[in-house]
Amino acid sequence: xxxxxxxxxxxxxxxxxxxxxxxxxxxxxxxxxxxxxxxxxxxxxxxxxxxxxxxxxxxxxxxxxxxxxxxxxxxxxxxxxxxxxxxxxxxxxxxxxxxxxxxxxxxxxxxxxxxxxxxxxxxxxxxxxxxxxxxxxxxxxxxxxxxxxxxxxxxxxxxxxxxxxxxxxxxxxxxxxxxxxxxx
Length: 184
Fold this sequence. Notes:
Layout: E1 3-4, E2 8-10, E3 16-19, H1 23-33, E4 39-43, H2 49-55, E5 61-66, H3 69-79, E6 85-89, H4 92-95, E7 102-107, H5 118-123, E8 126-134, H6 139-144, E9 151-158, E10 175-183
Parallel strand pairs: 4-5, 4-7, 5-6, 7-8
Antiparallel strand pairs: 1-2, 2-3, 8-10, 9-10
Helix pairs in contact: 1-2
């Protein structure tokens, strides 16, 4: 069972899943993923921070895939007054609609066993000039993906996490990178 607090979500081990100090990171991801407007796929709802920013853009549809039961219930409540939102319950790895292509795909999940499969799979669901962005725990993860022949841009975001209160080591940094991959 997750614990939902005003400023964060904690998992079963009492580790931070998402926190409100991530707002600048999520705002930049939303800006990147909605550059083409159109149809957006967001993988992972969390606290809905990125989702709120995506909804502020002039987009057609906003498909959100969420695996966690409690978070999905929160997604359904959030989406009630948003007719362009398509909530999907499940693991993104086998829940992306097969007959749909997107102008932008944003990925931010917690302890995703298919994390390293995301980029090659996501490319198959993009329209021409489609954009991928994803949350990455550190710069090493960026270099571990194979980005040959991709147009890659990194935007550095400075944040101020409450370091002394954080349990998870990669949430103690003050700089994160928003990745933009444009696929032809």
